[in-house]
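haha ok so turns out i had the wrong file open the whole time. this is the CORRECT one, sorry everyone. sequence first:
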Amino acid sequence: MTFATGITAANVSGLKRQQVRLPGTVDSSAIYLHGVKIRGVTRDAFFVTTTYGITLAIDAAKGSILWKWTPPGYRSWAGSVQITTATPVADPSRLWIYASSPDGRIQKLSVANGHAAWRVSITKLPQREKITSSLNFANGHVIATTGGYIGDKPPYQGHIAIISPGGRLLQVWNSLCSNRHGLIVPSSCTSSDSAIWGRAGAVVVPSSGDLLVATGNGPWNGTTDWGDSVLLLPPSATKLIGNYTPVNTAQLNATDLDVGSTSPVLLTSSLVAQGGKDGKIRLLSMSRLRGTAPHKGGELQVVSTPSGGEMFTAPAVWRTQAGVWMFATDGGGTTAWRLSGNRLQQAWQNANGGTSPIVAGGMLWVYDPNGGLRVYAPKTGSLLATLQAGPGHWNSPIVVDGRVALPEGNSNDHATSGVLDIWR
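then structure:
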């Protein structure tokens, strides 16, 4: 659905940019809260987490930093390869946000002043298991996933962690050695990898609260090891209730072509799309996915990624009265599809790469990691505007209340400074 943002095709090219200097690179997205009390004053604010775990509240109207929370131990990993690229999440009360840090912890921070109410570890080996994906909040719980670092350095296992608002680690489901519950020492599992690292993390199915995740390259045996798979779990994440893996899972694992280089995309209550590093997007049936027996193959459709190459982004879904659209980007292109008769029909395509796209205010926003934020008419692909921005990596924009927020920078540069662009 499309909601008014205060920005339209008529005024988007006239937006003015402010660059906010940050004490770190935000290789993710900002989140936004309207009309919340911070330091005793009602404000609109953006919240971001840097790659080294500093979380900041930023005045959306002025660009000033309202508070800064720095994790204990920051100096021990700042400038190193040990990072996080997870977007924080707010709970429905709008009094608290939850953020990650490179020491493998999730913290509950006060919106009012940045005070940490608690910190919970979701890995026993943060030097190998990274909190990569966006955090989520659903069913009254914080939901986080873990992946690995560049180079797939073992040992690590992708897993889902469920945390209560009170700070209790309620459940862990491991995608390798899944018969073992709770946090495990990675070296104690005979299997390694199977990262859950798609940008959207654990996807919540609205009607049921079930969780959809996808895993990267790793062993698969259809019982305890679930590498290169799309997986369905109940809200509690206590067991597997559905699964899919391609028939060539062994080849995908051997060639590091992760099925789970993106998170699953819920197109409708019955259809899921899954992009991968092998240059394919697979359209899957939710009903076929369900069940504890191992499900190999059976895709409804397979289409190419925008440029036919590796895909690392979270596609955007646009639901209109006329139908459902999906927009995807990779390093060499952007493509729009319309869903028709349980098939994806390509509507338009271009050769402009991008990070995870969004649809906001009836426009499609795509950040080019080489620089620039492009704004398209979603049905035709016609370019409405290009907003000046520096280069980046995973960063993706948000658009709300007449404002656009987009972090710049690349986590692989290991910088301890960065920029947040705000257009108004």
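The chain has two domains: 1-22+315-355+357-393+395-424, 23-314.
again sry for the mixup
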